Amino acid sequence: MSKKSSVQDVGARAHIALAQGPVEPSTVTSVHVPTARTTAPPRRRVRRDWAGWWFVGPFMLVFALVFLAPLFYAIYLSLFRETLMGGNSFVGVENYAQALTDPKFWEAMGRVAIFLLVQVPIMLLLALFAALALDSARLRWVPFYRLSIFLPYAVPGVVAVMIWGYMYGSQFGLVADLNHFFGVELPSPLATNLILVSIGNIVTWEFVGYNMLIFFSALKSVPQELYEAAEIDGAGTFRTIFSIKLPSIRGALVIATVFSVIGSFQLFNEPSILQTLAPNSIPSYYTPNLYAFNLSFAGSQFNYAAAIAIISGVITMVVAYLVQLGGEKKGAGA
To answer: Which segments constitute the ABC transmembrane type-1 domain (predicted)?
Structure first.
């Protein structure tokens, strides 16, 4: 039936009702005549709320000033080169090409890689062992031990290196006193073949407490019901550690590993300060950061130093991301 005929039928029924006379209001049935077009209600204009930016804005401003601005400026510097005639000239990626073929840079990067592969696992294992020992409920005076292990992290890095540097000295300090007391000649920790081990010892002493606190806090968040279920099943101490504790703190292990990887690539304070005590053992390019620092402030090669810093930052970011990705994949597989 078409729309036109339906309207005519409705009109006919209304005419018959009017011919029959007045009817009671209660008996009148409302008749709806369909219209060809219905008008949509007017759309209300949504007012944007800027309140959240008042909270995020101060952080974004500081972030832009202390992170983004120096980063962009370093990238800008790396694209230029200071020449004797003509001043700063645009060279594009020539500084990066030079850095990628610089044997000193790759020697420094290899030294840091060895440091990472040896020192980081030792430090994390010591921190994990300390956290498990404190969480085992078999030690008395747990707050005292926890504070004692964490205390070296509270010592400023420069002070810590100076303390250990004094003990390492074969002509003064602890090693010299031991040589004199026992009448022996101990190997000098500041020798060329031992200086990297000595630096690793200082870094481990500094950061074991920091990582221990991360692991210990994660262990305290493990539900007690898991331990009760393991005890009912007859699980021993080692079974509980490997089946409950370590899987439960996998996220903390990954975070601590990523932080340690980044810290290894940023190695600077320890070799920089020990360089004054052992100049023959620590060259100016001992680590990438030390190399970039000496290029800038000793050689006035700011543009090339900026390229070195950018490449080091990219390598650090890639390695840290791969470590995090590997930890997440193992967690998902478990």
So the answer is: 109-323
Of 1-5, 17-21, 252-256, where does the model show the most confidence?
252-256
Q: Which two tokens stand for residue 30?
A: 């409302």
Average pLDDT over residues 3-28: 48
Which pTM was predicted?
0.79
Q: Same domain, yes or no, for 181 and 278?
A: yes
Number of domains the chain is built from: 3
Residues 168, 211: one domain? yes
Distance CA 104, CA 110 (A): 10
Other Cβ atoms less than 10 A from the Cβ of 205: the count is: 17
What is residue 137's predicted lDDT score, i.e. its pLDDT? Answer: 72
CATH of the domain at 208: 1.10.3720.10
Q: Based on the fold, state whether residues 62 and 185 are members of the same structural domain.
A: no
Q: Is 41 left (phi over 0), alpha (psi -120 to 50) or beta?
A: beta
pLDDT tens digits along 228-247: 888 888 888 888 889 899 99
Task: Tell me the two tokens of residue 28.
Answer: 């009148």
Give SS3 for 145.
helix
pLDDT (average), residues 40-67: 80
Nearest-angstrom CA–CA distance, 110 and 98:
17
- Which of the four pLDDT bands, split at 50, 70 and 90, describes residue 164? very high
Length of the chain equals 334
- Residue 166, pLDDT > 60, answer yes
User: Which pairs with CB-CB distance under 8 Å and at least 24 residues apart come from 125-128?
Assistant: 126/204, 126/208, 127/207, 127/208, 127/209, 127/210, 127/211, 127/212, 127/214, 127/215, 127/256, 128/211, 128/212, 128/215, 128/253
Angle at CA 32, nearest 5°, toward 31 and 34?
A: 145
CA-to-CA separations, 332 to 124, 131, 152, 280, in angstroms, rounded: 22, 24, 35, 48
